[in-house]
Design brief:
single chain; two-stranded antiparallel ribbon; globular; Branched-chain amino acid ABC transporter permease; transmembrane helix; ABC_transp_permease; mainly alpha
């Protein structure tokens, strides 16, 4: 990482730490949801950008993490234990379902992951121990080492810490030796396999890791909201995560964060418009689907690499400034060539 990149990361981190202190309570709530979405988007960005796999069911792993944390807490176990179990349960579930699913490619895998979420939503909504369609209410607040996370600002910093941890883990993986294999896998599976890269194992590992990130975000969400239900993790949420990655730039950490920021703020704007007086009850969902589809089309047409990679490419193509005319005029004239005497 260059000095300029380190300075940019430090500046963004400083702003992220100050922002919760300057916002109102309702705005901090949006900020927390933004950070949790960015946590999920980073894992999905790695899955799409390096493993070349598209998941339309990423919210199902967020739901697994949320229900794991909630069930652990409501049955009297320490809440910090539920937070640790949330990403592990989501990663384990992804490792199991990934064995048959990752044999598929392209749109087949996308529809298969979507089917997994639909099945999971149906199963969770029919079980008594999950609370059925009503869900689990009264989830206790998170307590770690005697400290209870009871305010909006405390959860903002918790979500920010989770995002930072996920970003560090992702960067370490990408820059390591397995990361070079992942980059080769993103370029060509055949070439990567011929170079000795275990393609199936790497796909499985990235799929499970991205699910673990989603489970961590789901666990924090359960403690923050204090309530989980099948309706908290709809199919639209999975589509939202994909739009975040596509708009921001797949295969990049900054792109995932930028996409999550843009889409979360846009969703809040659409919800505000859709819930105004005179609007039908289905207006927020209809507006969301329409805008997501429009954004995907525009991103594919004009920014196929995403916001962040396109901005970096534009910066790198800046022309080198030519010397000023005055600089050439100030130079002394070259001496005239001398003729040899016979």
């Amino acid at each position: 990482m260059t000095t300029a990149a380190r300075a940019a990361v430090a500046a963004v981190a400083a702003v992220a730490l100050i922002v919760p202190l300057l916002l109102t309570e309702s705005q901090v709530s949006v900020y927390v949801l933004l950070l949790l979405s960015a946590t999920v988007a980073i894992g999905l960005s790695m899955l799409m950008g390096y493993a070349g796999q598209v998941s339309l069911g990423q919210a199902s792993f967020t739901m697994i993490g949320g229900y794991t944390a909630a069930l652990t807490a409501v049955h009297g176990a320490p809440t910090w234990l539920g937070l640790l179990a949330a990403p592990l349960a989501a990663a384990a579930a992804a490792a199991v379902v990934g064995v048959p699913l990752l044999r598929l490619r392209g749109h087949q895998l996308a529809f298969a992951t979507l089917a997994v979420q639909l099945i999971l939503l149906n199963l969770v909504g029919r079980q008594d121990w999950t609370g059925g369609d009503i869900g689990l209410q009264g989830v206790p607040r998170l307590r770690i080492a005697g400290y209870e996370f009871a305010t909006e600002v405390s959860y903002a910093y918790l979500a920010l810490a989770a995002l930072g941890l996920v970003a560090l883990v992702t960067r370490h993986i990408v820059t390591s030796r397995p990361g070079r294999g992942l980059r080769a896998l993103a370029t060509s599976e055949v070439a990567a396999a011929s170079s000795g890269v275990p393609v199936a194992a790497y796909k499985q590992a990235v799929f499970a890791l991205s699910a673990g990130f989603a489970g961590l975000a789901g666990g924090i969400y359960a403690y923050y909201i204090g309530y989980v239900a099948p309706g908290s993790f709809p199919v639209l949420l999975s589509i939202e995560y994909v739009v975040m990655v596509v708009v921001g730039g797949a295969g990049t950490i900054a792109g995932a964060v930028a996409g999550a920021t843009a889409i979360t703020l846009l969703v809040q704007l659409l919800n505000d418009v859709g819930t105004r007086e005179g609007m039908p009850a289905s207006a927020p969902a209809v507006l969301s689907y329409a805008v997501y589809g429009l954004l995907l089309v525009l991103a594919m047409l004009f920014l196929p690499r995403g916001l962040v990679p396109s901005a970096l490419a534009l910066r790198d193509r800046r022309p080198v400034p030519k010397p000023r005319p005055a600089e050439s005029e100030d130079r002394p004239p070259a001496p005239a060539p001398t003729q040899r005497q016979p």
